Amino acid sequence: MSGNQESTRLAAQRLAADPRIAQAKALLTQAVRDHQLGLDQVRPPRPELVAGYAEKVAKFEGLRGGTLYFPYLSAGFGNGPYVELADGSVKLDMITGIGVHGMGHSNPDLVDVGIDAVLCDTVMQGNLQQNEPSVEMTELLVKLATETGSDLQHCVLTTSGAMANENALKIAFQKNSPAHRVFAFENCFCGRSIALSNMTDRPNYRVGLPVTTTVDYLPFYDHRDPAGSLQRTMAILEKQVARYPNQHAILWMELIAGEGGYYAGSREFFQTLARRARELKIAVVCDEVQTFSRTNRPYAFQYFELDSLVDIVTIGKITQVCATLFTSNYKPKPGLVSQTFTGNSASILAGLKIVRSLIEGGHFTQDAHSSKTMRLHDLFVGGIKAIEAKYPGSLQGPYGLGGMVGFTPFDGSAAVAKELTMKLYEAGLMGFIAGDAPSRVRFLMPLLVTEPRHITEACRLLEQVVAGMVAARQG
Ligand SMILES: Cc1ncc(COP(=O)(O)O)c(C=O)c1O
């Protein structure tokens, strides 16, 4: 490069191209790879670390003012779906922080972009402090959202799923003011802010909170009675619209119920509801904080062919940085949406890497059967069904959709779902509960690093625990 060219480059570009950075990255990623060797199977805790670990967990619980679901403290290192805990145990992580760690643990590619993030001028990005990766992430999310016909031309980044949903609520309410009622599905989970706790259909999640949002619940799709369930839901919608004319601002939909228990709806169900909402000038909002990238399309609204019907979509979890996308029709007035932090530099760069890897890795395809995500689903569900065949009544479907795998264990009681989840944890497999009456068990595998052998191992551990529970119930 000539001296002239060199002087026209920005200092940031010269830093990024400095061979010392490439060398440091190569050294660091190689160190990670070297120390990952051997971290490829589950292991029990080391006896000498058990007492100190338990003390740390208890101290943490005391400081937090509440117990942890699992006594989980990561050592801060792992290998793909395997994670090393601070007690020396190694777990096979098939829940990934509830769908966050799509590239698993200590992924060298994320170490690489993490170094770029460390070299960014600021730790955080936000209202007055955006770097180019924020533009790239926004552009990528809009490009994916519009590629099959939606009009979601705009996107604002934010720090959590709850904040993405809050922004969605504000945008929809402002546009449709003075309408203020929300249609949401029974059994929905929307997030933990006060407004979202009002909408979430779990009474104990809003105990003692003031009512800020008026919600009319609609029954979710019932896979056992598709036509009847659509009819019932539409009848309730019409009844509420007649009861409160022009008061509904939002139809809030999670297309595969996540916390609700891994139930998928159907195209016809969602399309019929959304079409009617559009006629009534009610904003069609899809909460994709959990469903983004879990089918063979980037967004679940694309899987259910709602492209021409969605007004606002939110995403989070696997994208590391969260976002609210909206159509031009729903552009907020100045002053409504802004934040000191939209994300930290590492999460924005990691999110970009993850979404690009999903695209390049064959997860998003036109034909569902050729998607890597859908093939992983089939393998996992095949393993679960084989256990159910061996121990009838132990693990019942429906088994979720795509990268969201779930089942109802035994009698579907909350106690049994918790017992199974805890026993899996002790055996080295991390899943989690979902839903209520029945309570279910679910997995959100790290889509970018899960290989068939990991699913085989997960199913082996699951079978071992189920066999033990069956034997205990018989004896
Ligand atoms: C569908 C859905 N919406 C919103 C949220 C809230 O996201 P966060 O916990 O990042 O605030 C979640 C989290 O589980 C979710 O599953």
Walk me through what this model shows.
- The structure is a single chain.
- The protein folds into two domains: 118-360, Aspartate Aminotransferase, domain 2, CATH 3.40.640.10; 368-474, Alpha-Beta Complex (Aspartate Aminotransferase, domain 1).
- α12 links the parallel β11 (283-288) and β12.
- It is 44% helix and 16% strand.
- The model has no long low-confidence stretch (mean pLDDT 97).
- It contains 16 helices and 20 strands.
- The protein has 475 residues and is of the alpha/beta class.
- The protein is globular, with a radius of gyration of 23 Å.
- It binds pyridoxal-5'-phosphate (PLP).
- Residues 98, 160-162, 165, 189-192, 254, 258-259, 287, 289-290, 316 line the site of pyridoxal-5'-phosphate (PLP).
Write the layout of secondary structure elements.
Layout: H1 3-8, H2 11-17, H3 19-36, H4 47-64, E1 74-79, E2 82-85, E3 90-93, H5 96-99, H6 108-118, E4 124-125, H7 132-146, E5 154-158, H8 161-176, E6 181-185, H9 194-199, E7 214-218, H10 226-243, E8 248-253, E9 256-257, E10 263-264, H11 267-279, E11 283-288, H12 300-303, E12 312-315, E13 322-326, E14 343-344, H13 345-360, H14 372-390, E15 395-396, E16 400-401, E17 404-409, H15 414-427, E18 429-430, E19 432-434, E20 440-443, H16 452-474
Parallel strand pairs: 3-18, 6-7, 6-8, 8-11, 11-12
Antiparallel strand pairs: 1-2, 2-3, 4-14, 5-13, 9-10, 12-13, 15-17, 16-17, 17-20, 19-20
Helix pairs in contact: 3-6, 6-13, 7-13, 10-11, 14-16, 15-16
The protein binds pyridoxal-5'-phosphate.
Pyridoxal-5'-phosphate is lined by residues 98, 160-162, 165, 189-192, 254, 258-259, 287, 289-290, 316.
